[in-house]
Amino acid sequence: MAGLGALDAYQFGPIVQRGAVLSVGFWPDKKDYVGRGLKQLLSENAEVLTDPETIARHSAAVQGLPAIERLLFDEMPSCPAIVGISTHVAMTADALYADWFDAGGWADLARGAGGPDNPVYLSDAEFTKVLFTAIDFELTRIADTRLGRPLGTFDAPRPQPGRGLAVGAEPCHHRCSTGRNCRVAEAGGSPRPLMSRVA
Question: What is the C-alpha to C-alpha distance for residues 61 and 58, in angstroms, rounded to an integer?
């Protein structure tokens, strides 16, 4: 999740073309789309839940890291679905990397901004504007959503700890059909999720 946070500002190029902003990091989730989507996903046979194609056919809310977190830290059966969702996220990451760095990829378009054969960035200034707009958007989103929602404003502080990121949760100890504990093992303390459902 920390890796995704560092790249969250770059909402242009392949990330937008593939819809990876929502499918990998579906947040905020004010209406519990992740929870509802997981209930629908988990109604399928366990054998197909490990298949990333099954995951891809469902809502973007169940295709990424918030869905994995929900399965790890809520009372939901999860073993096959975690494998399928994790594989789908890995495939998405591989595709994004290729889209950026393969020959003729988005990195080449950015480096060649203003060149005669560049169909996307007609000038160096155009790419610079896209980059700074993306960074400005992310800083605004951090202030307004990731910090502002749980903390409130200077004029009207309203601490709501359950509405932010990194909210602690105790893992359940659901045992999957294999009979093994399929949750994250506690190592010297209670694990904390990286993202939390937004109430």
Answer: 8
Q: What token pair was written down for 84?
A: 């399928």
- Check if the beta carbon of residue 29 is closer than 8 Å to that of residue 69: no
Annotate 83-140 with three-state secondary structure: HHHHHHHHHHHHHHHHHHHCCCCHHHHHHCCCCCCCCCCCCHHHHHHHHHHHHHHHHH
Q: What angle do CA 115, 132, 7 make, to 5 degrees?
A: 100
Q: What is the spatial distance between Cα 75 and Cα 70, in angstroms, rounded to a whole number?
A: 9
pLDDT along the chain (199 residues), means of 10: 64 91 85 94 93 96 93 80 96 96 96 95 95 91 80 74 48 41 39 41
The DSSP result for 22-62, as a single string, is HHH-----TT-HHHHHHHHHTTS-GGGTT-HHHHHTS-GGG
Helices (H) and strands (E) in the chain, counts: 10, 0
Burial class (CB in 10 A: 0-12, 13-18, 19+), 177: exposed
- For tokens 């890291």, name the residue: 65
